[in-house]
Each structure stands twice: as C-alpha cells, then as structure tokens.
C-alpha cells in the first residue's frame, strides 16, 4: 500500500511513485492493477490506468444503535479498481481487459 499524506499531496510524490511502478510493469511486460481512492483516480488515469469498477467497504452489525450507524457511515470507504494494459496502450473500443475475453 502506498499513500501520500494529505499535507504532502500535490508536490509530485504520487506522480514519482506511479511513474516508477508503471516503468517496472513495462520493463516486465505485464499489466498493472491498483485500488485507488477518489482523489487518486486522476493521477492513475494520467499514467494510462482505466477505471474498471467501484467498490465500497463498510462493516455491518445486526442491531446497531444510532451511534454505531453514524460511525459506520463515517468509516465507509469508496475505492476504485483501475487497470493498465501492458505498455499502457489502450484504444477505446478495441483494448479488452483479459478477464473480459
């Protein structure tokens, strides 16, 4: 897991990390996958990743009182599955993710 602390965002650290990772993937000739936050989606798109799906992580318990329900909403996490094909080459309408073939 890589994460840039909010106080240090917008200074290029995330960009450097993603550049390093995509370069390694290209050298190895493999695809790349990430689970992104909403704020991270544009950064990954800039590096050839494509949004494939959204997911939500939320704990649920039977019989939760109002306090626990409020906490549950605060702790609900939205994430995004993103994929980058080999070499970062993606052509809309032509490039198909391997699991969809």
Structural notes for this entry:
The protein is of the alpha+beta class. Helices cover 32% and strands 21% of the residues. It is built from three helices and three strands. It has a three-stranded antiparallel β-sheet with strand order 1-3-2. It is globular, with a radius of gyration of 17 Å. The two termini are 29 Å apart.
Keywords:
101 residues, alpha+beta, three-stranded antiparallel beta sheet, globular
Q: What order do the helices and strands follow?
A: HEHEHE
Structural class: alpha+beta
Radius of gyration: 17 Å
Multimerization state: single chain
Question: Which sequence of strands runs across the widest sheet?
Answer: 1-3-2
Mean pLDDT: 87
**Largest sheet, strands/sense/barrel:** 3 strands, antiparallel
Shape field: globular
What's the total helix number? 3
Distance separating the two termini: 29 Å
> Which spans have pLDDT < 50 for at least 5 consecutive residues?
none
The proportion of residues in beta strands is: 15-25%
- Roughly how much helix do the residues carry, as a percent range? 25-40%
Q: How many E-type strands?
A: 3
């Amino acid at each position: 897991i890589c994460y840039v602390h909010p106080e240090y965002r917008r200074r290029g650290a995330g960009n450097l990390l993603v550049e390093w990772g995509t370069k390694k993937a290209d050298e190895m000739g493999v695809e790349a996958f990430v689970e992104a936050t909403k704020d991270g989606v544009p950064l990954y798109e800039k590096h050839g990743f494509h949004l494939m799906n959204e997911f939500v992580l939320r704990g649920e318990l039977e019989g939760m009182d109002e306090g626990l329900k409020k906490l549950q909403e605060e702790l609900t996490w939205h994430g995004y599955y993103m994929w980058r094909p080999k070499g970062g080459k993606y052509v809309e309408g032509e490039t198909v993710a391997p699991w969809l073939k």
